[in-house]
Write a structure and sequence with these properties.
Elements (H helix, E strand, L loop, with lengths): L2 H6 L14 H10 L7 E5 L12 E2 L9 E2 L3 E4 L10 E9 L13 E5 L11 E4 L3 E5 L2 E4 L9 E2 L10 E3 L7 H9 L4 E5 L3 E7 L3 E2 L10 E2 L2 H12 L2 E8 L3 H14 L2 E5 L7 H11 E7 L2 E2 L3 E7 L2 E6 L3 H21 L8 E5 L10 E10 L5 E5 L9 H5 L2 E5 L11 E6 L6
Parallel strand pairs: 5-6, 13-16, 13-17, 14-15, 17-21, 19-23, 22-24
Antiparallel strand pairs: 1-12, 2-11, 3-10, 4-6, 4-7, 5-9, 8-9, 18-20, 20-21, 22-26, 23-24, 23-25, 25-26
Helix pairs in contact: 2-7, 4-7, 5-6
The structure holds adenosine monophosphate and magnesium ion.
Adenosine monophosphate (AMP) binds next to loops.
């Protein structure tokens, strides 16, 4: 090969070229290709934690169901509150949470009341016990500093009957479980979880438990994928390592598309290797090979294999994680919920210079921490080479360096994306 030809071979180390897709464009193409899952199942309330609500929840009742006391004290009518000086009231009974007072309060009378007890008929105000003086078993005295209606929770104050309480598409949180329980709802309808199949490609890969021959390495990508997918709460189908052999690959792709909504592979999409996998993918589906203006993770393959979405991630262990977080995770969120979730980003002061080059969107691995004064600071988590998995393991965030980001100096403000954090 002539030297000019060698130089003309495209490489992952090249700066951005005109054919490269920008990160947000790739995300948009992926989004356009997805139809959210509409299958659903009914689950007992507790099992719905972390699942996606199928239909809006309409409240069948008022919460609280009855007007009740927010304090321990006495319930009385606001007409009995003295404008000045003090006033003595006659105690005619007690109202407990769960055991209401059955009678009615007349002028000059009051009822001892516990927090959560329904307000007795004829009362609308509660004076807390610390603000009253007990004269004897039948009489209490109150002063003039009270307000009509104080310390009372109105029926329906939290949730009105027939109100929309939780919207379809929401990922059920612990607080949602409590709200649903407060409505007496025992079962809810949620969307089916996506099934995600993945396998690694590469003749050099061995699985844990096997021994390593010369030039062989352990497959680590199936473990990062397992971890990231488990956090997303999807059904996982681990198909192991598939050799760089057309029949084995064809068979693995075929099987994956019959099993899963999403198929993820790692390896085999970089320049040179792609020649190998491309004819098989073209035969089975509609696939694009992208070069993305990002670092790491430049080559990415995306499309449809039958009805399944397909992500061909680079083989490089760090690139797998970066492309998963930036492309696969938002896609799986949208597929499972029909909602786009905006990853949380925050501003932080970078405590060391970064060796970034403009032209590509860089995702550097960082360690974010909060100072005693509450300020966010971030530093690189170690060497940023795309094969350095330990700096990914030490990191808790990506430092986002956009294409036009000037070289970062110590003390500059940068944008940081903590792992696994979402707004909304
Ligand atoms: P490829 O994209 O297949 O050319 O792989 C790029 C680099 O990532 C090579 O050094 C591979 O050996 C490595 N690699 C590919 N797949 C894996 C894997 N599953 N686990 C660890 N390293 C891998
Ligand atoms: Mg390979």
């Amino acid at each position: 090969m002539q030297i000019e030809q060698i130089l003309l071979q495209p490489s992952c180390a090249d700066d951005v070229d005109t054919e490269s897709l920008r990160v947000h464009e790739a995300r948009q193409h992926i989004r356009d290709a997805i139809t959210p899952i509409c299958d659903y199942e009914k689950l007992p309330l507790r099992n719905a934690l972390g699942r996606i609500l199928m239909d809006d929840i309409i409240s069948p009742i008022n919460v609280p169901a009855h007007t009740n006391s927010a304090m321990d004290g006495i319930a009385l009518s606001c007409k009995d509150l003295p404008a000045s000086g003090s006033h003595t009231l006659r105690l005619i009974g007690t109202a407990y949470a769960g055991v209401p007072f059955k009678g009615e309060c007349q002028t000059g009378e009051c009822v001892r009341i516990m927090t959560g007890a329904p307000m007795p008929r004829g009362t609308d105000t509660v004076v807390m016990q610390e603000h009253m003086q007990i004269i004897d078993d039948h009489n209490v005295r109150i002063g003039s500093t009270h307000r009509a209606g104080q310390n009372v929770r109105q029926a329906g104050e939290d949730i009105h009957k027939a109100a929309e309480v939780i919207q379809a598409g929401r990922c059920i949180t612990p607080a949602d479980l409590a709200v649903l329980a407060s409505l007496g709802i025992a079962e809810i309808t949620v969307r089916r979880r996506p099934r995600v199949a993945f396998f690694s490609t590469g003749d050099e890969l061995r699985s844990i438990g096997e021994s390593l021959g010369e030039g062989e390495i352990f497959d680590s990508n199936r473990y990062s994928l397992y971890g990231m997918l488990t956090h997303l709460g999807v059904e996982i189908i681990d198909m192991g390592v598939v050799r760089d052999e057309p029949n084995a690959l064809r068979e693995a792709f075929r099987r994956a598309t019959t099993l899963a909504d999403v198929v993820i592979t790692s390896g085999g999409v970089s320049v040179g290797e792609a020649d190998y996998i491309k004819p098989i993918l073209d035969e089975l589906g509609n696939i694009d090979f992208w070069k993305i203006a990002m670092k790491p993770g430049r080559p990415l393959t995306f499309g449809k294999l039958g009805n399944a979405l397909f992500f061909g991630l680079p083989g490089n262990p760090v690139a797998v994680m970066v492309t998963f977080y930036q492309f696969v995770q938002p896609a799986i969120h949208y597929l499972s919920s029909g909602q786009f979730r905006q990853p949380l980003t925050i501003k932080a002061t970078c405590t060391s210079p970064l060796h970034n080059r403009p032209g590509r969107f860089e995702f550097q691995r960082g360690i974010l921490h909060q100072t005693a004064e509450g300020e966010f600071e971030v530093m690189r988590s170690g060497k940023q080479g795309s094969g350095i998995l330990t700096s990914m393991s030490h990191a808790n965030c990506f430092i986002l360096l956009a294409e036009d980001q000037a070289p970062v100096l110590a003390g500059d403000t940068v944008i940081v994306q903590p792992f696994d954090n979402y707004l909304s």
